[in-house]
Specification:
This protein has 8 helices and no strands. By secondary structure, the chain is an all-alpha fold.
Length: 238
Amino acid sequence: MRQSKSWFTWVKKRPQKEVKENEPVTQRRGQKKHYTKNYFSRYLSYVKAYLKQPFPEFAHPQANNSFHGLTTILLISLFNTISLTAVANYFVSRYDWFANISILPNVSFTFTPWLFAIKTFFFLVISLWLLPVVIHCFKKIIYKEETDSAIWLSEFMGMNVFSLTLSFIGLLMALLAPLLFFVVILFLLIIQLVILNMAAVVSFTPYSNQRVIPLFYIILGAFFTNVLIEFILFSLIF
């Protein structure tokens, strides 16, 4: 005789099966949370190391992470994008008032903050990524240097970690009082640009004794190539 199915037993065992199936999911979530926490602490160590010694003779051990450079690029771009968008939106929204009290012409135009922010963000991300890529290509072609591009990006952006601090300060100023701190925000942006160029020059100094091509012309060629690509990029995005 066919034995009847015990529904009570099936219901009783069902939660145990679900818990067993959910165990890997819970474990993955725990691993992901643990990795995120560890990465945050490692990134802070990376930032602290390069703040103490921005241009080390040898790369800091914290730079041996392929994501630190990209994280720095994204953060600097994000902070500067918000700052520029806040300042631009403030002045554009009050352009008529400024035109009435100054020699500015009465011009009618439309300004979309979110579109400006998206374009600015992508432009800054590509621009900050572009210069180390150009330098990496020059080193590889001229000096035959074989370096992992992601690690090199972390090393180069480590020399620009101070710009991360400046961009965050500019962000706070732009959100608090864009008109009052307008000049200071522009000054901070200029300093970031100077630091970026300094990092580019310093990255070539270990090769000063190699007489393949005079170092001056190598640096000049790298800057000219970068500026040319930047100009094309700006015309395409904006």
